[in-house]
Design a protein that fits this description.
The chain is an alpha+beta fold. It is built from 6 helices and 9 strands; from the N terminus they run H-E-E-E-H-H-E-E-H-E-E-H-E-E-H. The strands form 2 sheets. A 7-stranded antiparallel β-sheet has the order 3-8-9-7-6-5-4. The chain has a two-stranded antiparallel ribbon with strand order 1-2. Strand 4 and strand 5 form a beta hairpin. The chain is globular, with a radius of gyration of 17 Å.
Length: 271
Amino acid sequence: MTFGDQGIPPHTSDPYAQWVAEQERIRKRHRTRRAVAAGTGVVLVAAIAAGAVMYAGGGAGDGTTTAAPLTSATADSGAPAPSVTISLPSDAPTALPSLLARPVIRPEQAFPQQNVRLKDGSRHHRVDLATTTDCARGMSAELAALLEQGKGCVRLTAALFTDTERRSQVTVSVLSFRRVEDAAAVFTMASMDPVTYQVVSLDPPPEAGLPTAPPGSAGVFRRLMTVRSVVFANGQWGDGAETGEDELTRQTEGLLQYVNETVLAYEQGDT
């Protein structure tokens, strides 16, 4: 399947304030590496810490949300995209230019396994994989408008997973950028408004034998930022059920973390 088929109180709800606090904890634990935090207007944190767990957007507006259909890009609301200005910190790691000079992660590198076993022992099967260099085709109109403010997206790759009971449908998407600043801008806006600034979910291909989730079904939205990518995860029950939020969240966050670790290792030059 291709994509063509388809005011925050300070230090509490500010996603980057929470992100910085998390990075400080990680920095103290991993003394040989460090995450960098600084910026103007909106705080930018370049994710260069080894094994860093990026802030997953637990602030206002996140969680299980009844939203527009996740399987197609949302219609343009007509409102102009807000201007988001982010700058690299003056003490950004010297290794950053060399990391950004590497090719963006390829689909087979981001999703190397069709059958995945998560750390909690649960198993998931990848039923679809799609990739495009025309990133706007796989996201909401508002997110596409935000991308136009920067230097653009290089590649969007998404995979659709289901659990052993073949009930859940979790799309994990890797949106890779030329510049860290653009990745940070997308991460910021998607953390504050995950429904408006979303990548679309994949419909199950016919050969998968899975139902297509009904339009408007409840969904769990999560995201993490690596060095130059934002990894999104959208989870739904295939039957459109609005119960079982905890289990759906567990699966969505587990798959997000699994893919995030793979992408982060590649972008840090560890693989």
